[in-house]
């Protein structure tokens, strides 16, 4: 997800693909990470380190 925070164009392109085929792609790791990065970028939330405890 940190990569999507840094690379705005990759985030945009990925989200476009995800939105074009939500039934197949919406739950993929790539789409979830791009969506989370978009939210964090919009709200100005910094990239937080992972805890190693799995997904939150």
From TrEMBL:
Lineage: superkingdom: Bacteria
Protein name (database record): Uncharacterized protein
Organism: Craurococcus roseus
Phylogenetic placement of the source organism: Bacteria, Pseudomonadati, Pseudomonadota, Alphaproteobacteria, Acetobacterales
């Amino acid at each position: 997800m940190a990569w999507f925070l840094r690379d705005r164009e990759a985030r945009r392109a990925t989200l476009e693909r995800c939105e074009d085929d939500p039934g197949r792609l919406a739950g993929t790791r790539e789409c979830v990470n791009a969506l989370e990065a978009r939210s964090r970028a919009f709200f100005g939330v910094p990239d937080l380190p992972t805890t190693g405890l799995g997904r939150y």
